[in-house]
Amino acid sequence: MGISVILFLHVASVLVLAAGLALEWAGIEALRRSSGRGEAESWLRVLGAVPRVSGLAMLVILVSGFYLGGRFGVLGNAWLVATYCALVVMAVMGGPLARPAMAALHRAAAGGNDATLAALRSAASSARLRASLNTRIVFGLAVVYLMVGKPDAAGATVVLLLAAALAAAWSLRRESPPALVERYQ
């Protein structure tokens, strides 16, 4: 395959991953504020597809990225090593950390009574789910910066530390419960 095809697959997969994160964010927020079971079920279907698509995009990003890095002789550069670290953080936060919270969402949706919607909204408000998504978004943006800026080792370390601090601050902020928000809308 030509280098331009590999580069296209790499960039297209980054766009797909970004779209997946945006859909996940929209889906979780929609579940937190859903007013009926039908609305919630629609978003649950979307959220069920996102990990498969995002996982495939991440695989293509990694394979094409290693190929491109090897082709241009930059695999050992500090900005690329920092990028690998950020991608590992994203994978851990999207897999082992998010999976139990997403399973709780699906369990909450399985009930057929009036408490189901409240349980679903509560599960969508999970701090674990919020931390997973926020961290993946921030580290995804850090990767984009690392790819564009190509900082030295000190700069790449600062980027990762800033990403970690921002993700932690964003994830630890207090969220108002959906019911309280609805009262003022």
Describe how the helices and strands are arranged:
Elements: H1 3-32, H2 37-72, H3 78-110, H4 115-124, H5 127-149, H6 153-172, H7 178-183
Short summary of the structure?
Helix content is 85%, strand content 0%. The chain is mostly helical and 185 residues long.
Describe the structure.
There is one protein chain. Helices cover 85% and strands 0% of the residues. It has 185 residues and is mainly alpha-helical. The chain has one domain (3-183). Helix 1 packs antiparallel against helix 2, helix 3 (78-110) packs parallel to helix 6 and helix 5 (127-149) runs antiparallel to helix 6. It is elongated, with a radius of gyration of 18 Å. The protein starts with a helix and ends with a helix. The mean pLDDT is 87.
| Helix content range | over 70%
| Beta-strand percentage range | under 5%
Q: Give the ordered list of helices and strands.
A: HHHHHHH
Main β-sheet description: none
Number of extended strands: 0
Shape descriptor: elongated
Evaluate the radius of gyration. Answer: 18 Å
